[in-house]
Amino acid sequence: MVQAPQKTITLDEFLQLPETKPASEYINGAILQKPMPKGKHSTIQGELITTINAAGKPQRIAWAFPELRCTFGGRSIVPDIAIFVWNRIPLDADGEIANTFNAHPDWTIEILSPGQSQTKVTHNILHCLNAGCQMGWLLDPDEKNILAYPARQQPISLQEPTDILPVPEFMGEMQLTLGEVFSWLKPGFSIEPKIVESSK
Question: With 60 as the cut, is the pLDDT of residue 5 above it?
């Protein structure tokens, strides 16, 4: 079936539209709706957020947010997980976390859903990296692999359960293997990630 071309709108016009469920993103003048998260996606997303926040929040290092709209560089995207270092978290006049994040995340994580375009998701990761993001992850629950995108370096393909996942420098105390991440998909068989004590 041939789809009629979508009318191009501006970013400001897009931001005035009501939010959709699942979220829609503004990319290159077009509105693209994300797929509805399913079981594997939601499981990994929830466990990763819990793990990252357990390592990052107590010491006020970083905070992981699920499905957070980030508007910057002419795009408005909604990473599955957006991690901001503590001093870059936008605050409102009351000192509370702001509703609007007009900034790139410091670490962006995307989890592929069945039928989702890997190319589109990769472009969003690269958009974040070009804006100053320190690390991107692309997880594929079906293939049980992770592509890591360190800033200004070649992507790293992680396929073995024992592979230690690279994390941004600010999360240096967190150590997680590929096997630990995908063990979350088997209830009762999860492996606890290691938190390495800081030498500082």
Answer: no
What gap in Å lies between CA 184 and CA 189, rounded to an integer?
7
- For residues 67-83, give the mean pLDDT: 97
- Tell me what the pLDDT averaged over the chain comes to: 91
Distance CA 151, CA 132 (A): 8
Provide the CA 7 distance to its chain's centre, in angstroms.
28
User: SS3 of 10, please?
Assistant: coil
Are 22 and 35 in contact by the 8 Å Cβ rule? The answer is yes
| pLDDT score recorded for residue 137 | 98
SS3 for 44? Answer: helix
Kindly report the pTM of this predicted structure.
0.89
Which is more confidently placed, 1 or 130? 130
State the Cα–Cα distance between residues 20 and 72, nearest whole angstrom: 19
Structure tokens at 147: 């592509």
Q: How far is CA 183 from CA 37, 41, 118, 130, 154, in A?
A: 19, 13, 23, 32, 27
For the chain, the distance separating the N- and C-terminal CA atoms, rounded to the nearest angstrom, is 60
The pair of three-digit structure tokens given for residue 187, joined into one six-digit string: 């209830």
